């Protein structure tokens, strides 16, 4: 049976550990090959039998209902609108938490009247217990229900279990106010945590708010407002000043400035006029534009970007995987320690059981790992969102984390470090052909090639073409072209092509690209073609060296002299020239090291195999290029190599934030745990060490989203 991938939305999920449980249960569904729950975007991606994956709503909803009430799972719509990032208002929160509010009122009322002696002791004891029990059940019912439900399924060790045991224990030793207070402040903390998670998701949504909600379609001499998904290739749309361009296309009338910052991270707008290509996600700034659509929405640039960013969190970083596994073993471990704290001192020293039992309860409250499980996935997703905002598409948290380990960067030359816009600078004939005739002959040989060098020759010859039906053209990879024209064999290409065919050259050194020509085994002459170094390349190499990337290498199929000049001007450490495509792969393989990461930077089209073979493939100028997006792990939206330094800086910032959360959470919890064992921490300190630390970690995550 054919396999299919489907995406489902989750509304109301703010508990990361619940998300892990939903994912784990869903993986048991027959017919599914893979299930990945993305907590940051509140989506579930499933892969499996085509019939099965498209009819999972009810099964997934049943699983969710067993694990976390109030969560709604629906099949993701095809219009690109993500309900998964819906933000619940404060008013809605308060209505959902009305039981919590009523319970809190009863609790504080009970605390108030506990200081009066109006009632008799017996009556008072019974009344106060009723008040506290009522408040406790109203406030903690969601926790109690989840705890007992999970125990029934054998899923014992989670935060619901910890809070239930801790508060039940407090009731057992007559610490009624503390039992209710712990549950109250835990639930209030959960409320703030939900709010913080939703704020984080809203910030993520703002970063990805590049899709136009409508398109102005020209139909029967009228303008009709429709969804971008309804527009077909070849139809014409109007984009007014201030509107987002909804689909990729070509301007057919009008001229205006367009803002590209949402796609490329560049703040300066660029001018477009009739004949220019524009991309979905750009913003038309000042004049009316009429655009002929070149791609349907599902193939458009904005759709590719949204899919890449939203799916990035499914590829988890090693740190995320470690924390998930750590939480699985950490909770039962601390429960065991708490049991020993409660039992061993009374048994060994005869100390009061109530005293040590109370300390064990504090230990349990502290131990919940929510701060880590919630904040770390959001931290990585925030880094991915920030990178996207800067015109850098990172395909997953694993690649963002891998950037921190890169110590060797290998660049392709043409189109990456140089402009890739070739220009004929010299033509030299050593035959009966005049220089103009030689140029036109080269254009005739090169006319069916899409290579930039071929295009520059055709352009210099004023687009000269003289193709006859009996002509034969054969492109030789990494060498040039062999053609049969009018019964004669012609060669146009590099030094290797000439040597392989026994052609003796009279000129073979230049600091530019050289195309040699030969006819029937005789050398005719050469054409020099120059390619300028990008101004941004100098800045890129300078920044990378300042970031301790000492080993910078360049690979090219160009001649040695041209490669040497580029490497020397840029200050590149090593270069390898005159490489065929397969030799580039071999060279990359020889540069790979076991414990170090190598990143290859190419244009994403001709270098797809090398991008795939590297530890980290970075495609540059890949905006709208299917080959770039498919082959690379990271796609730079512009052709600026300095974006690599920006990507490294974002990766470094994300790593720093994630480890701040890990160290902060574990340190505070460890200190309070130790203090609780020695009787120096109260239940209030325990609540802070649990809920308070989780909130601090989330607020820390939001720093990267706001930067």
Walkthrough of the structure:
By secondary structure, this protein is α+β, with helices and mostly antiparallel strands. The protein folds into 5 domains: 3-85, Alpha-Beta Plaits; 92-205 and 312-380 and 653-706, no CATH class; 232-295, Calcium-transporting ATPase, cytoplasmic transduction domain A; 392-418 and 533-637, HAD superfamily/HAD-like (Rossmann fold, 3-Layer(aba) Sandwich), CATH 3.40.50.1000; 423-530, Calcium-transporting ATPase, cytoplasmic domain N (3-Layer(aba) Sandwich), CATH 3.40.1110. Helices cover 49% and strands 19% of the residues. The strands form 5 sheets. The chain has a 7-stranded mixed beta sheet with strand order 14-26-25-24-15-22-23, with helices on both faces. The longest helix is centred in the last third of the chain and has 35 residues, at 643-677. The chain starts with a strand and ends with a helix. One of its GO terms (molecular function) is P-type cadmium transporter activity. Keywords: ATP-binding, Cadmium, Cell membrane, Membrane, Metal-binding, Nucleotide-binding, Translocase, Transmembrane, Transmembrane helix.
């Amino acid at each position: 049976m054919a396999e299919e991938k489907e995406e489902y939305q989750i509304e109301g999920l703010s508990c990361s550990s619940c998300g892990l449980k939903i994912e784990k249960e869903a993986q048991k569904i027959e017919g599914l090959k893979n299930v990945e729950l993305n907590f940051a975007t509140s989506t579930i991606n499933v892969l499996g039998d085509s019939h099965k994956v498209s009819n999972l709503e009810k099964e997934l909803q049943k699983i969710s209902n067993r694990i976390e009430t109030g969560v709604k799972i629906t099949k993701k719509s095809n219009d690109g609108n993500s309900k998964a990032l819906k933000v619940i208002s404060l008013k809605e929160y308060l209505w959902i938490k009305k039981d919590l509010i009523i319970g809190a009122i009863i609790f504080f009322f009970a605390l108030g009247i506990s200081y009066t002696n109006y009632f008799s002791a017996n009556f008072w004891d019974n009344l106060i217990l009723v008040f506290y029990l009522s408040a406790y059940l109203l406030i903690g019912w969601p926790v109690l229900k989840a705890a007992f439900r999970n125990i029934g399924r054998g899923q014992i060790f989670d935060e619901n279990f910890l809070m239930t045991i801790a508060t039940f224990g407090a009731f057992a030793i007559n610490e009624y106010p503390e039992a209710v207070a712990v549950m109250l402040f835990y639930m209030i903390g959960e409320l703030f945590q939900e709010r913080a998670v939703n704020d984080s998701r809203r910030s993520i949504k703002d970063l990805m708010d590049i899709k136009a909600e409508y398109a102005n379609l020209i139909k029967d001499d009228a303008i009709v407002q429709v969804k971008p998904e309804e527009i077909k290739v070849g139809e014409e749309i109007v984009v007014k000043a201030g509107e987002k361009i909804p689909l990729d296309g070509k301007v057919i009338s009008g001229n205006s400035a367009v803002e590209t910052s949402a796609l490329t991270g560049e703040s300066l707008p660029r001018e477009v006029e009739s004949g220019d290509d524009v991309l979905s996600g750009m913003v038309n700034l000042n004049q009316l534009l009429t655009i002929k659509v070149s791609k349907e929405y599902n193939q458009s640039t904005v759709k590719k970007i949204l899919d890449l960013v939203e799916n990035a969190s499914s590829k988890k970083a090693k740190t995320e995987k470690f924390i998930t596994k750590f939480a699985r073993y950490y909770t039962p471990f601390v429960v065991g320690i708490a049991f020993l704290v409660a039992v061993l001192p009374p048994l060994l020293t005869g100390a009061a059981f109530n005293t040590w039992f109370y300390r064990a309860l504090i230990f349990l409250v502290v131990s919940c790992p929510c701060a880590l499980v919630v904040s770390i996935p959001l931290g990585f997703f925030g880094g991915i969102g920030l990178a996207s905002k800067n015109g850098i598409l990172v395909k997953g948290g694993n690649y963002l984390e891998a950037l921190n380990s890169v110590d060797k960067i290998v660049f392709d030359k043409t189109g990456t470090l140089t402009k890739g816009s070739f220009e004929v600078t010299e033509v030299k004939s050593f035959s009966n052909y005049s220089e103009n005739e030689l140029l036109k002959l080269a254009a005739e040989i090169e006319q069916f090639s899409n290579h930039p060098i071929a295009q520059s020759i055709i352009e210099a010859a004023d687009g000269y073409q003289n193709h006859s039906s009996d002509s034969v053209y054969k492109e030789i990879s990494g060498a040039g072209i062999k053609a049969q024209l009018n019964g004669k064999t012609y060669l146009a290409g590099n030094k290797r092509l000439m040597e392989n065919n026994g052609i003796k050259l009279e000129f073979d050194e230049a600091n530019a690209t050289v195309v040699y020509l030969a006819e029937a085994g005789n050398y005719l002459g050469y054409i020099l073609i120059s390619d300028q170094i990008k101004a941004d390349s100098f800045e890129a190499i300078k920044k990378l060296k300042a970031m301790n990337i000492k080993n910078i290498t360049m690979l090219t199929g160009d001649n040695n002299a041209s490669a040497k000049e580029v490497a020397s001007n840029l200050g590149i450490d090593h270069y390898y020239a005159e490489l065929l495509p397969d030799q580039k792969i071999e060279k990359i393989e020889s540069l790979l090291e076991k414990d170090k990461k190598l990143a290859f930077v190419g244009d994403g089209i001709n270098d797809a195999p090398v991008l795939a073979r590297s530890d980290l493939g970075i495609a540059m100028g890949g905006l709208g290029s299917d080959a770039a997006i498919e082959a690379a792990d990271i796609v730079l939206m512009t052709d600026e190599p300095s974006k690599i330094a920006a990507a490294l800086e974002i990766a470094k910032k994300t790593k720093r934030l994630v480890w701040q959360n890990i160290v902060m959470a574990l340190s505070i919890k460890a200190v309070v745990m130790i203090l609780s064992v020695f009787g120096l921490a109260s239940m209030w300190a325990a609540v802070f060490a649990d809920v308070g630390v989780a909130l601090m970690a989330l607020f820390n995550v939001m720093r990267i989203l706001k930067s």
